[in-house]
Amino acid sequence: MLTKALSKLCVSVLTLACILLCTWAQAADSPYGLCSDSSVTESSQKVIPIDPNIPAEFTADQAKRDENGIAILEGTVHMKRGTQKVDAEKLEYDENNKHVTASGNVRAEDQQLIIKSQEAELNLETDYAKSNDASYFYKPLHASGKAKSIERKSADFVRFENTTYSTCEEDDRTWELSADEVDLDKNTGDGIGRDVTVKFKGVPIFYTPWIRFPIDDRRKTGFLTPTIGNSNNSGFELETPWYWNIAPNKDAIFAPKLLTDRGLQLKSNFRYLNQKSYGQFGLEYLDDSEFKDDRYLTNFKHLSQFTPKLQLDLLYNKVSDENYFEDLGDGLGITSTSFLERRSDLNYNTEHWNFLARAQSFQVTDESILNVDKPFKRVPQIKLDSNYYNLLSGFDLSSESEWVQFEHDDKIDGDRLHLGIELEHPFESNAFFIRPGARLTHTEYDLNRRDGVDNKPSRSLPSAHLDAGLIFEKNLKKSAHIQTLEPRLYYLHTPFRNQEDIPIFDTDEYDFGFEQLFRDDRFSGSDRIGDADRLSVGFTTRVLDLEDGSEKFRASLGRIFYFRDRKVTLPDEPRENEDSSEIAAELKIGLHDRWEAIASVLYDTHDDETERNSVRFQYHSENDFIFNMSYRYRNRDIEPIDPLTNRRVSLEQSDISMVLPINEHWRAVTRWNYDLQEKRNLEQLVGVEYDTCCWKLRLAGRRYNQNTDEDYNNTIELQLVLKGLGQIGSPIGELLERGIRGYDARDDEYF
Predict the structure, then answer these.
(1) Which of 118, 455, 643, 671 would bridge 657 by S-S if both were Cys, CB 3.0 to 4.6 A apart?
(2) Using CA of residue 510, residue 515, residue 521, residue 526, what is the dihedral sign?
(3) Using an 8 Å Cβ cutoff, are 670 and 686 in contact?
(4) What is the DSSP letter of 211?
């Protein structure tokens, strides 16, 4: 954005203006992909302030003093003051008023800046400095330019006349910013530019007769970079955000957005930051000519840290209609939003105790979800947990207590009180661990709208477990690695209690996987506690780097063996009577820091079928070729019911993405996300990118599915990045970072 770019430009010109005495310049991170300059050494990552008491040192081929006492140095003249240097053919120094005049191929350099001119003058006492017909190079941004005059009138005020700025090569100024006059005032933190023009390929793409911009970290009111796009859903789109710096701790953005097929959308976002709190409020409004109604989206977030232990967290979201995200969302993640959360949390945490008071509800934005399947409200939820370690010669003690009032318009609701306490005594060393433990829980309900049955059911259950494992290690020959073998046994015993009269408020069955082998319950939430008499057997082997401890390889395999049937189930679910679970396996390989593969599988030996598997592969070469491939499969018949939608979840999807370098400047990008089960494309993206050391151009076409119907949104997006200045067009770089794993857009703005 231009305001931000000018903010960065001001840092360079401030440094420039300081000539030899500048101490204002801020250090910048080392950029990459920059235009080269063989005469320039790398800038310091930390600017060391110059001590004004350090005397200047002079050397020259010839030196004399005239009748007025002015020292005249000629030939190869060098002046050094701290980290600042001046080279010239001639230098005159008036010691009485500390005035220096340099002429003839003058070259001034400090930690971050190089200035070349035919003449320059400065005063070591008053901070006055001036350079005529100067060219400069600002090292942190590899930026350069020229100025007819650079005059520092005081330590806090600098004026540039007829100046230019660019990060491109001197002989190939693809883009350049020029201004008739620029004033920089350190006291106010303002820069003023007059007759500012930005040219690309010699064609003006931006002009303003007057602009004010910040020259330090103080934020300034002004326009931000506009966003331009086009889609078949809304037509041509133009968004012009305006930033309002209300106060040092408050700001806002107002962004009118023109949608040619729908109308004018008004977007705003207000932020605030206080000593103990921060938050933001956002609002979008559109009088939609296509939808024939007013549409809006609002959100509010707030966090207050009253003390290091006491915190308040607020979240509120509301949308006008269920189709808002499908019509006006800008990506697959937005358009697939089904629930908007509203929540108020009060947390108090100490070393051993954690307290939570919560009120929570959801707005459903998926019209296919029936009222009876909508989630419960928690109004309120009160939770208190504790953890104490190494008590009484090695015991670990933990407790949980929770009271929740659930509300629902179409289902049985009521109150739930849950209490639990657990005691464990671990025995551990580098070669083994043994962790015996026991748990006792009690849950009771006070239910509404149940005629002829007990409205106050309760349940008390003890449980015991024993977790034990060994760790074997061996050094791999001719390799700086070790391999481990880690067998593990986990026994769990929980007696059966009939829980069919207890409703389901927030309980679900965990997705089964390798980590599930070692859980103390197969259900989440407190409405069900699974009966268990089982033994889990697991094996893990790893290959570790001896130098840095990084994991190069990991493979895990495990299974549960049941000694009796599981009688506790979710409503309408059959009892489980197999004598063993599915086989759970996981694999991770990451060699040479260039490629990585992760896979997991859940295989049912009883039905001889795969119930769930996933594979993810990435290759990232030295020349930035990136290839990603992932596959996910979930069998509908074995999947648990989603507690929010009360529906089974199943899927089979593939996701392939790639960044393909074509030559030094061109590369292609693509992504294909496909639903194999529904036989439809979720998202398709094809684009090209042209990248140089000072500018970048992206062009991308997208087609993404907005719902389960064959309803696609097609967009064509263009983005021009002027490195070191700003961006014009749609934020394609952010889109590619989200969609293509390993893609990095950080060099778009290397400041």
Answers:
(1) 671
(2) negative
(3) yes
(4) E
Dump pLDDT digits (tens) for 307-328.
Answer: 999 999 999 999 999 888 888 8
Q: What is the pLDDT of residue 304?
A: 98
Phi, psi (rounded to 5 degrees) for 493: -130, 120
Q: Do 422 and 397 form a contact (C-beta atoms < 8 A)? A: yes
| DSSP E strand stretches across 621-665 | 626-634, 651-661
Q: CA-to-CA distance for 624 and 622, rounded, in angstroms?
A: 5
Q: What is the DSSP string of 288-345?
A: ETTTTEEEEEEEEEEEEESSSSEEEEEEEEEES-TTHHHHH--SHHHHT--EEEEEEE
116 vs 98: CA distance, rounded Å: 22
CB 465 within 8 A of CB 493: yes
Partnered with residue 295 across adjacent β-strands are 286
Cα–Cα distance measured from residue 523 to residue 252, given in angstroms and rounded to the nearest whole number:
45
Which residue from 508, 505, 502, 469 is spatially nearest to 488, judged by alpha carbons?
Answer: 469
Dist CA 472 CA 483 (whole Å)? 8
Spatial distance between the Cα atoms of 110 and 85, rounded to a whole number of angstroms: 6
DSSP letter, residue 13: H
Identify the three-state secondary structure at position 442: strand
Is the distance from CB of 112 to CB of 138 less than 8 angstroms?
A: yes
Q: What is the pLDDT, as a whole number, of residue 677?
A: 86
**By the 8 A CB rule, do 266 and 253 touch?**
no
What tokens appear for 205 in the block? 């793409």
CA–CA separation, 133 and 103 (whole Å): 12
Q: What pLDDT does residue 330 have?
A: 61
| Of 127-131, 334-338, 344-348, 712-716, minimum mean pLDDT range | 334-338
The closest alpha carbon to 14, from 156, 188, 168, belongs to 156
SS (H, E, C) 544-612: EECCCCCEEEEEEEEEEEECCCECCCCCCCCCECCCECCEEEEEEEEECCCEEEEEEEEEECCCCEEEE
Q: Is-contact 744 722, C-beta < 8 A?
A: no
Contact 643, 650 (CB under 8 A): no
Kindly state which CATH superfamily the domain 2-220 is placed in: Lipopolysaccharide (LPS) transport protein A like domain (2.60.450.10)
**Domain locations in the chain?**
2-220
This prediction has a pTM of 0.77
What is the DSSP-derived secondary structure letter of residue 35? P
By DSSP bridging, strand 726-729 and strand 235-239 are unpaired
| Distances, alpha carbon 129 to alpha carbons 51, 677, 687, in Å | 18, 72, 50
Which sign does the torsion angle of CA 167, 173, 175, 180 carry?
Answer: positive
Specify which residues 204 forms β-bridges with. 199
